[in-house]
Amino acid sequence: MELLISIFFIFIVSVVFYALKVPLVLSYIISGFIASFFIHIELEIIEIINELAISVLLFFIGFEFSYNKIHMYIRQSFWGNFFTFTIFFVLGTTVAYTISNDLRSAFIFSLILYPSSSMVIVKILQSTKRLANLETPFIIITLILEDIFLGVFIGILKGSYFPILNAILVVLAIAINFKFRNKIKQFVKFLISLEREFFLVVTFFLIISSTFILDSPIGAFILGIVISDTYEGFFENHISVLREIIFIAFFFCFGYILKGTLLGNLNLLHISLAFVLLILSIFIKIINFFQIGNKRVIIRTLLTMAPRGEFSVFSVYFIEHQEIKIIAAVFVLFSVFLGSILSIYAKLIK
Asked: Domain 43-348, what fold?
């Protein structure tokens, strides 16, 4: 019955948001919030869905991590993204630590402010027919580099303060891919020769196993790097539907936990601070896009990059300080809703 109620709310709210031409990711969050008044979901189930969603996402990010591509991205945009990450890290940590005196929650809060949503922004670019725009390559490169930075730093969420260890694992994975690429391709070719259902079972087993072995979604990221540059289109075509279903459940669960996080605790200060941080987070990224040259295109690019999403949602769960968690949740809601609207209507800036 609880599953039926969840699907019912997702369907109804999605229909409304689709008619209003608002990104559906927000409808999943709202559906979860409404459903929280009618159903009960065990925390363990929410944790499993979150871990699975981020592991699948990081696997596909790792899949994009070929040496040639990364060499190009680093040459074109690494330092701008590195300085942007540093500013976000200092800003988020300073604001959150001043409020909470909780260093771990402050670190995680900075990771929530930083990354734009690859999933939301790419869909907006596709739906608004802007894939051929001048700024789109800069946006894609920035999204990929942001995901890579987060892949390295995601160990902080698991209590590790040594992301350099993750960086070493990434380097080793690239070396393995480079050294044994032919044998890896043969193994992947064998996988895709299997029946589709068995291929999906094996792929998800490998993703979950790699996550379990390293006790972090970084394991799926490493796996993606190891088998990168091998039949990317096949993986995308055969896993994309399941990935979408997992992410619907992921954002639904985030909406579900908002009831306990926000109701009775939210005040005007939380809302005001989250809104100010959203504005700052939009314009700090101007560092990445100076090389575009055209001022109007730069503004359009900054607005397009406004939405936060999957990584920010995932990180909220790990914040232990209640007040910082409230501000983070409100920030994510603002960035998904207002950020998506700004991203969609940025196309009007010519």
From this structure: Na+/H+ antiporter like fold (1.20.1530)
